[in-house]
Design brief:
Protein name (chains A, B): Aminotransferase
Strand order of the largest sheet of chain A: 2-8-7-6-5-3-4
Structural class of chain A: alpha/beta
Helix content of chain A: 25-40%
EC number (chains A, B): 2.6.1.-
Family (chains A, B): Belongs to the class-I pyridoxal-phosphate-dependent aminotransferase family.
CATH superfamily of the largest domain in chain A: Type I PLP-dependent aspartate aminotransferase-like (Major domain)
Number of helices of chain A: 12
GO molecular function (chains A, B): pyridoxal phosphate binding; transaminase activity
Largest interface: A-B, 44 and 44 residues
Strand content of chain A: 15-25%
Pfam families (chains A, B): Aminotran_1_2 (PF00155)
Oligomer: homodimer
Order of helices and strands of chain A: EHHEHEHEHEHEHEEHHHEEHEEEH
Largest sheet of chain A: 7 strands, mixed
Radius of gyration of chain A: 21 Å
């Protein structure tokens, strides 16, 4: 034997913790960037008309109901700063950014604990019963992160109406909605025509796998808020390349269809492969990621992550989500061979 | 003769109204974008370390004194929102955006009229004599837009000290400073080490001719403000392509040198060619643009613009600048043949 380094198997690092589409950056994005490089020499038009029209057509909303932002984190900050809520009601577990941004802007938060025995699904009637006019804002992820649970459009409408009655703003984060089956039926976008207290956040980072472009958009139908935003928000903060790339990508129906087909198939396969294992509990996913509880006492999220890291598999430890503990892990759905390796590697520790 | 359309001379449209570098988009920008397209699939690091280091090195400041933003308009809004001034003192004429943004955030503005008989140069001792502790903020462009007048670093230091004494924030907009001769001696960046009330705004849009990328930066040395900004500002609002392009471009010394050489030469030629004309008055420029007053009664900015438009020459009508009237025009310095055409076309009406 040689005295060289030991031969170890090399694995590519795969980020199951970022929840991005496994198909990766659409070719339409690359093409649009190459074709529009010269636009960096010109000021973008402040209305971003082609981008705005592409979003309106993609999301089935009126162009004038759109607010553009540099990522969903940017829009979350914009709306919390704009609405200046004093008290919020948040279901937990949910995305850590909601609570963080609310607290930065001095908003007190009450938590509504989702029930693990209902697979963390939100019981809308019970949630509504907890509302009162002391609240100024409710923030919901739909599907929710990290639980991957979907709330029906009918339930969202019930909530929007109840919030409207109590003068509560409803911020609905649909960052992952396009990963759900028949998402056109799940999205609450059409409800903005009826409820002016409803604000829907959308991001392109996850579904189109372009987090480096920094684009998100919100849909709302509230003249007062829109007037303030038009006055105060920076008129042309989006780079011309981001605008051109996103305009092209939203019209890339081939990518959209292939994404759905890939993710729906893989989601079912992963769920079937893992769900019967008695050492773990899967919460049936609606989005492109899965929340899993480890039921084996001596395996923690931390030890499972360390084990998976050896094969380049990066999972999300969920212990910092309010309401979860050191036995929760989240992973997203990647490509077939990657998913096989991930499932097998997880099961090595939990068999 | 044929019955076809009349043969008319065709002119390329040249934007003398945007104040961008006539060399156009640096090749280093195009290259960096092509080489970094795959980065759109990844989240930018929230600190933007390579970009931050490139700016710090370019602008001779500490990386931790930098605030990044999506254009100077974005940073102006950020600082006005952060400082929440009640009363401002603005020299006029100056950039229209200052007064607009201050008023959007409910700040009352007093105007200090620059004296046309001093070529709109700011008399610093007199300006300081107008300060009082009723003011919360002073905003100055250096060089000032649209006057193209430069304030010496010694005068800026006097002002920063006087403002500090009165607890007034000094927002110094150096968007055009790199177009001045020996700009390293003119910039006030090193003064942030002494004056924590000084905030310097810089943009890359004008000097590097990349307004489509949307990047600006501010330099300040104020822990309280920096802490609030780090808490509230969106952590990763800049696209990865903008970050990569700007990092490369700030190190493109060939472009920087060629820009200086081109602009200094052309500025002198234009000034010499027009300055002796008795029907116009040029205010000796320090930046890459020139303010001109039309002294011929029957020619207005509007009629001169219409005349120039016929040859594709787009000038800036300055009548909407507070303190100017319908006889003021601003134009920037473009490339040699373009400038010859512009000068000749203007002189056609003013001879």
């Amino acid at each position: 034997m040689s005295n060289g380094p030991l031969r170890i198997e090399q694995y590519e690092t795969v980020r199951y913790d970022l929840n991005c589409n496994p198909l990766g950056v659409p070719d339409s994005v690359t093409r649009a960037i190459m074709q529009n490089i010269s636009a960096v020499g010109r000021y973008p038009d402040t209305y971003y008309e082609p981008l705005r029209n592409a979003i309106a057509s993609y999301a089935c909303c009126a162009p004038e109901h759109l607010v553009l932002g540099s990522g969903s984190s940017d829009l979350l900050r914009l709306f919390v700063a704009l609405l200046a809520p004093k008290k919020a009601l948040l279901p937990i577990p949910s995305a850590t950014d909601y609570e963080h941004v609310l607290s930065v802007y001095g908003c007190e938060t009450d938590f509504y604990e989702l029930d693990i025995n209902q697979d963390y699904h939100l019981d809308m009637d019970d949630f509504i019963a907890h509302l009162s006019d002391t609240y100024d804002i409710v923030i919901l992820g739909n599907p929710n992160n990290p639980t991957s649970q979907l709330i029906s459009k009918a339930d969202i409408e019930k909530l929007a109406a109840a919030c409207k009655e109590l003068d509560i703003a409803l911020l609905l984060d649909e960052m992952y909605i396009e990963f759900t089956e028949n998402y056109e039926r799940n999205t609450a976008i059409s409800l903005v025509n009826t409820y002016d207290n409803l604000i829907i956040l959308r991001s392109v980072s996850k579904f189109f796998s372009v987090p480096g472009l920094r684009l998100a958009y919100a849909i709302m139908n509230n003249e007062t808020n829109m007037t303030i935003i038009n006055m105060t928000a920076t008129p042309n903060s989006i780079s011309c390349l981001t605008a051109a790339a996103c305009t092209a990508m939203l019209e890339d129906t081939a990518y959209i269809h292939e994404s759905h087909s890939r993710i729906f198939t893989e989601r079912n396969l992963i769920y079937s492969a893992m769900n019967t294992n008695k050492n773990l509990r899967l919460f049936k996913p609606s989005a492109n990621f899965v929340l899993m509880q480890i039921l084996k006492e001596d395996v923690t999220a931390k030890s499972l992550l360390a084990h998976c890291n050896l094969k380049g598999i990066v999972l999300r430890n969920c212990e910092n989500f309010h309401g979860l503990d050191s036995h929760f892990v989240r992973f997203s759905i990647m490509n077939p061979m990657q998913n096989d390796l991930m499932v097998n590697t997880i099961l090595e520790l939990l068999r």
